[in-house]
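Why do we care about 3D structure at all? Because function follows from shape, and shape follows, mostly, from sequence. That is the central idea of this module. The next example makes it concrete: a single protein chain, its amino acid sequence, and then its structure expressed as tokens.
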Amino acid sequence: MKSLNRYSILVSALLLCSMTLALQAATTIKPAGVVLLVSGQANAQVAGQASRTLSRRAEIYVGDRINTANESQLQLRMKDGAMIALGANSEFIVKAYSDDAAGDKKDEAVLSLVKGGLRTISGQIDKSAYSMETPTATLGIRGTVFDVYIKADGTTVVILREGAVDITSKTGDKQRLN
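And the structure:
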């Protein structure tokens, strides 16, 4: 009987500790960026949670799947100063985003444009730690301003405005635009 009570106490203590750690993790989630402008309708959703309508000053988090409606646009400023402007009927995912401003993490930016189009101006994040995935390629930046469009057939179109972009196709072919 004593060992059953000890076991119950141990299980309860472990459950309490894991709940405390989960609560701490949930309250220390920092935004990856902020919405600067919404024209029309846009929303964000984290897997398994309800969709939230985006408006000016709304925070964007790692894991957010952002959608813009027909004839809608959205502008974001990421926490490293990068700017992203999504066009109409776009779907965009923030897979990872951290910068070393606090000195506790290394830079990382993993973004995904699923459909639609965007223009981005890179920020202060380490350029080698940045990638943007599309259905057909992965893009790396080298101090850049560029546009990305996903055509109806899934083809990725990149328009370089400034800097350089490294493009790696899903088949492994590499190309640098500069």
